[in-house]
Automatic annotation (TrEMBL):
This is Antirestriction protein ArdA. It comes from Elizabethkingia anophelis NUHP1. The lineage of its organism: Bacteria, Pseudomonadati, Bacteroidota, Flavobacteriia, Flavobacteriales. InterPro entries: ArdA, ArdA_dom1.
Amino acid sequence: MTKLLNCLDTICIYVGTYKKYNDGSLFGKWLNLSDYSDYDELLEAMKELQQDETDPEFMFQDYECPSFISSLGLISESYISNDIYDIIDQISDCGYDIKVIESFIDCFGVSDLNEIIDRITECYVGEYSDDETFVQSLLEETGDIPQNIPSYISIDWESTARNVMYNYSTSNNHYFRSF
């Protein structure tokens, strides 16, 4: 699992310019965001790479990043947010794995970064292999299933899970209380 602390290691951008592209050149270079301490240092590297242009209009012809980075609008073909390093730090402080954040966004969409962090903290239940395993664990942990239940009583976990899941959402085996 990739921790958000190392999230910058997974973000790479291919930096070219619109002028070169329009002139038929794909000249550029892959830059890894973790090689730079902040946006200003990244910007200097981009300018140095394209130093043959006086005022380069950067084009990010390709980029690799966790899906939530592009979902938050932090990177696109013509834009990289100057707040990207601060935002990654802020998200990293919440302590959740990248897959948890991506699963949350898949379930509930993206609205506001602070809301995402607050909601994950409030709603995240855990990772389970399937709905039945999740519901059985949930009901046992909350005490809704007595520990001394007779062995001749059989619980239809598929049906129980179907009913309980009305109050939960899941993506990639990560479970969240619906809000």
